[in-house]
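Recap slide: tRNA-dihydrouridine(20/20a) synthase, sequence and predicted structure.
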Amino acid sequence: MAVQTVDRKISVAPMLDWTDKHCRYFLRLISRHTLLYTEMVTTGAIIFGKGDYLGFNSQEHPVALQLGGSDPTDMTRCAVLAQEKGYDEVNINVGCPSDRVQNGRFGACLMAEPETVAQCVSAMQSEVDIPVTVKSRIGIDDMDEYSDLTRFINVVAEAGCDTFIVHARKAWLQGLSPKENREVPPLIYDRVYQLKEEFPHLSISINGGVKTLKDAALHLNYTDGVMIGREVYANPYILAEVDKLFYHDATHVLSRVEIVQHMVEYTRQHIANGGRAWHVARHMLGLFQGQAGARVWRRYLSQHGPDRNADETLLLGALDALLDTQRQAEAFQQRVNQDV
């Protein structure tokens, strides 16, 4: 199998409990080219779990599996399974700071063990043809000097990794929650820019605090790629301009209403396979962010979605409520204009 090339100018971050296959299918309707990542999946879940932790929709490509673990044998076994499933990339999590992840000896704590990460990379690349990449922080605890970061990059790159996604914050392994670790340590974008200057032969993507596509375009002046996280989840339609702006693809972009119509059929199929409407709808709360009626849309889904008997008409009901609100707003504005 030939090595595949993944265009990572814009990607959506792996987000635990959020970027599942339903979320990724939904986001793919908005952008054809954005690289999507799974939630972090541990080697233990894949090897010993009873669920299908590697399942995804064929429409999701390009899609990458983010893997949590530190045992080279287990990591390699999971990378092989990922390639067999059809993933376009496997990414090693060296950035998550949670206690549970640390207890499993993976995530951000591995920044203190670059040799372990290097062993995993080498072992995995010996068995798969898809890219093996690493997502890290700029440092952890008191190992937060630029020299600590470059040592980590050097060791892992020498093992064969040529792609790094770097969250431009350090992580405190003790004293801060995962949420606080996304907000409290300051963003130091210049450190990631400096990495790209020092390692021009490597692909360096930046992550952390990206709110707009204007921000992304700025970062791309200094890095190879930009990973956007929670802003995409809160305001997913931000991706609607990505294909045109960053991939020179002016193909028709689905409207928000068209996306809802597609997701109705997807939800119907999910329910037929034993799922619930809320599994899908919960990822769509932000679809109309910034639009008239957005609050009505969110409220309708939040009130009716968790009902176990809710079906695909949940989305149609929310859409009707939103459109009715928009019609009322337009009628009110017309009356105001007439009075003026």
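Strands lie at 10-12, 35-42, 63-68, 89-94, 132-140, 163-171, 203-207, 225-228.
The mean pLDDT is 94.
(End of recap.)
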